[in-house]
Every structure is written in C-alpha cells, then in structure tokens.
Amino acid sequence: MSKQFDVIVIGGGPGGYIAAIRAAQLGFNTACIDEWKNGKGGPAPGGTCTNVGCIPSKALLQSSEHFEHANKHFAEHGITASDVKMDVAKMLARKDGVVKQNNDGILYLFKKNKVSFFHGRGSFVKAAEGGYEIKVAGAAEETLVGKHIIVATGSNARQLPGVPFDEETVLSNDGALRVGAVPKKLALIGSGVIGLEMGSVWRRLGADVTILEGLPTFLGAVDEQIAKEAKKAFDKQGLKVELGVKVGEVAKTKAGVSIDYTDAKGEAKKLEADKLIVSIGRVPNTIGLNAEAVGLKLDDRGAIVVDDECKTSLPNVWAVGDVVRGPMLAHKAEEEGVAVAERIAGQHGHVNFNTIPWVIYTSPEIAWVGRTEQQLKADGVKYKAGTFPFLANGRARALGDTTGMVKFLADATTDEILGVHIVGPMASELISEAVVAMEFKASAEDIARICHAHPSLSEATKEAALAVDKRTLNF
User: Where, by residue number, is the active site (predicted)?
Assistant: First the structure.
C-alpha cells in the first residue's frame, strides 16, 4: 500500500532538503527522497554541495591555506615554524568529518521538522489519484503518492567528449576531493570556480599546477577589472593559467595523463601530468527520474522546463536548483526551494535573480552581485564607478592581506547600486552587505553614509561607495 503525502521532494541537496523543511513548517505532510550514500552505505543527504562540492572543498581550502601560512607567512608575524609537513590522509579525514557533520545535521532537521525521509532513488511511475505515484528504489522499495512533487535532483559534472571520469587519473570534482597524495604535476581543464579552487588547494600543498582554459579572457563572467586583479595574484602565487587554448587528444599514460592542445598563438603543445581535473561545467541530472512516464518536459540540455515560479509542464509538479534554468548555485537552489513551498501554500515566494551573489573561495576571494562594468556598457547604461583598495584598509594591513579592492557601480542619475565586485580578504562575507543594499534598492550614498566599524574590512565597502562620488577619506 502506498504512503500518501501532501508534498514529496525528490533530491536532498540544498534545494531539496530546504524545500522539504519549509513545506513541513507550513503544515504539509512532507517526504524527501535522497539516494546519496556515505562510506558505510548509510544516508548522506545534502547533495553535491555537502558531499562533493561546496562543503568539502572549503574544508580543503582551509587546511591548505593554514599550511601555506605556516610555510610562507608565519615568519612575518614573528612565528618560527620549521619542517612543516602536511598529512594528506589526516586532511582528507577532517574533510570527511566536516561532511558527515553536515549530513547528520540535515537528518536531524528532518526529524525536528517531521519530514519523512526515504533513502533511495526517487522516480515517477504515473499520475495517480491524489497526485503522482513515486517509486523509491533503495534497500527497501517503497511506493509513495504525493499531491505536489518538487524535483530537486541537481546536476552532474560534464565530461570531456571521449574522456570519461575514472576518478583515479581523470577526475571530476568528486575525485579531486579524494586525491590521496600531493601530485607532482596537476593539470586542470577549465578555469571556473572548481578549477581555481581545486588548483589552489593542490598548489598550496606543493603541486605544479597548470590550468588550461578555452576562453580568451580570464573569468569572463567577472568584472574585468576585478578579474585582472585576481589573475595578477594567481600568477604571483605560481598558479599557471593558459587562456585561449584548444584541447585536442587526452590520453592516459603509464605516468598519468597527456593532453595535446593548441595555445592562443596556434602553437601545438603537450602537457604531461600525474592527474587531470576536468571542470568544464555541469549538466542537469534527470537520469533515472523517469520523466517520460508522466510527460514531464525537458529542454535540449536535459533540464526540466519551468516558468518563473518553478512550475513544470505538469500540474502540481515543480522543479528547483541545478536541474532547472538559472545559475547552478546552492543558495539559488535554497531560495527556489523555499519559494516553491510557500507558493504551494498560496503565499508569494520571492527569488530575485538580480541579487544572487557569486563567490570563488580562492585566496584572494572573489565575490560579486549585480552587473559588471562590461555588462553595463553593453546595455548602454550610464553609470558611475568607485573603487577602494585593501592596501589602504587598516584591518587588511593588520591581517597581512592587502590584495585586491572593492568596486561599486551605481546609476549615473539615480545613484542606485547596480553592481558590487570584490577581490580580496573575506570577500565572501563582505558581499552580503551589497546584496542587502541592492535588494532594498539602496544608493551608493546610502552605504557611504552608514557607520562601519573601525578597524574592519567592511570599511573598504564604505570607502568604495564614497569613491562613486569621488570623496574617499582614506585613499
């Protein structure tokens, strides 16, 4: 006999588990299905983000940053540290521990909010009386019926054509997080978020890292001035990034992998490496969903087609996160999950794509919200720009990290903030002020007039806002 629910969420990543919790908070009898397994075969909700994405990568970035500080920067603070070594196995064990804490936290939240959790793969069977029949294929097969279905099945790493991931030599983000020893030579294809973050981790630990990027510009989605500042910092660190390359044959060798490519000048080259991380984007995950059984419409990329409210082609079937249009970001998925649960309850869920922040957790960190200078120029928008360097910020000097700047872009007539772009220390935290400001349609003058604590990195935000009106106080 099937179990009946008001809302069934397929997928327990950021979009899915948050949607389930919010639906339960709104009084719906809610189930969440997720198949991710931990090393012991038990449930590991949290999706790509928690298991092989945002959370473990930040754990490794933190460990590797500590190692680099001990080796290269402690001396300037008067700290003598000699013969510093990295125990990679222990670093990975800590990362796994952080992941488990997050997995267990989600299971606790399900219990706290009375969400019924089913461990297995969820798929459509048919439309049924009272909604849709969903099969859970796990240790014990279950049949559920839900009035409303929220699909939150996430995305998978995109493979190079003809070069499948083996997670030993050719690695996706998953394998990149499980490398058991520091490779002497590490190659990456793709200089996006994953490429730069994973490249940074292994470079800090001693790997010779080369990133091959097909686009002629570095971080094309980032404000050009910010991207140039970041590139300067990465070059200085020894992270080699080759732009405008065309990758040819990729072959596994006895030593690892060889990559034939043509550089930006048209010269044929070969790169030999112990490991290759492929980070050329992600594709929506609808494998095994059995969408065709109920006529759920997919687009050419395999993403579920939704409208502005995340409604699919089927009544009472919704989809959120990486499996639909829009940026593949965990926090975007969470906002859509909450919004859909509230729409099911007859409320007005809110997701503003124009104020979704982006972050790259390298050192320096890169964060931004809103439009870039090049986008404003392309759109013919008249704007004013203001920048302030961390070099002139007292807290940054005390930290010993003065790389980068804060940049404000504001409407030339109304002074409304159109974009804020940061490269430098703790950019991931500083960007939140800009998100709040833009959500409330604040002006640059508003931020310039607000008192910021001294000394703090946030003063650079205030000063950049002042710079829009050409009246910085400390530069």
Answer: 454 (proton acceptor)
| Close Cβ partners of 278 (under 8 Å, ≥ 6 residues apart) | 157, 158, 159, 160, 163, 165, 170, 171, 172, 188, 189, 190
The domain of 455 spans 355-468
Quote the pLDDT of residue 370.
98
d(CA 292, CA 113): 32
Q: The pTM is what?
A: 0.97
Q: Which of 4, 227, 258, 27 is nearest to 132 (CA)?
A: 4
Position 319 scores a pLDDT of 98
Average pLDDT over residues 362-368: 98
pLDDT score, position 130: 85
Which residues fall in the annotated binding site? 58, 122, 153-155, 190-197, 213, 281, 322, 328-331
Whole-angstrom Cα distance, residue 155 to residue 289?
A: 13
Positions marked catalytic: 454
Could you give the number of structural domains in the chain?
3
CATH code, domain carrying 322: 3.50.50.60
* 73-89 pLDDT, tens digit each: 999 999 999 999 999 99
Which residue positions form the known binding site for NAD(+)? 190-197, 213, 281
Q: Give residue-wise pLDDT tens across range 220-259.
A: 999 999 999 999 999 999 999 999 999 999 999 999 999 9
- Do 30 and 146 lie in one domain? The reply is yes
